Amino acid sequence: MVIFARFLLIFNLGWLTPAWALDEAMDLQAIGKLARQRGVPVMVVFTARHCIFCERLQSDYVDPMLLQAEYTDRLIIRSVTVDGALELRDFSGTMVSRNDFANRYDVKVTPTVMFFDHQGRMLTKQLIGYSSPAFYGAFLDDAIAAAQDKLNIKSQRDATL
């Protein structure tokens, strides 16, 4: 059994990934369209391979959020691995490296959590790092509420134009 577990850790078999696993952003343009249809913000967790704080943030907060309708009904959650090799499609439809995408939003530390509208405009300031696990849930909930409020204000303003 231990050998099989090590095999899974080494090869990270995708077909054994839990259904609630955090999806890597591949096409933010499509995600943005979905966010617009649902009227919700997009939460992006910028991570790096071998980042222990990223792993802790994901296991302590992000993974549990993916299991709760309280969160999945209110936002779309994706990750961007800044040192990943694959390019992603940004909110405007342009293919860009993950590192360049992170640099565009001035992401200098991982983990960093950001909230966007459907066009890739930042809705709140960044949540940088993961140094206060006991308080992080409150910071995260406050940022989610602020992103939703800002998105709702934009939606109301756009509706009156």
| H and E order | HHEHHEEEHEEH
Low-confidence stretches: 1-20
Shape: globular
- Share of β-strand residues: 15-25%
Strands ordered across the widest β-sheet: 2-1-5-6
How much is the average pLDDT? 86
Look at the helices and sheets and give the structural class: alpha+beta
Distance between the first and last residues' Cα: 62 Å
Tell me the count of domains.
1
Briefly note the CATH topology name: Glutaredoxin
- Output the number of helix runs: 6
Q: What is the share of helical residues?
A: 40-55%
CATH homologous superfamily classification: Glutaredoxin
Q: State the CATH architecture.
A: 3-Layer(aba) Sandwich
Rg measurement, Å: 16 Å
- What is the CATH C level class, in words? Alpha Beta
Q: Would you count the extended β strands for me?
A: 6
Main β sheet profile? 4 strands, mixed
Would you mind describing this structure in some detail?
This protein has 161 residues and is an alpha+beta fold. The protein has one domain: Glutaredoxin, CATH 3.40.30. It contains six helices and six strands, in the order ααβααβββαββα. It has helices at residues 2-11, 28-38, 52-66, 69-72, 98-104, 133-160; strands at 42-47, 76-81, 87-89, 95-97, 112-116, 127-128. The longest helix has 28 residues, at 133-160. The model is unreliable at 1-20 (pLDDT under 50).
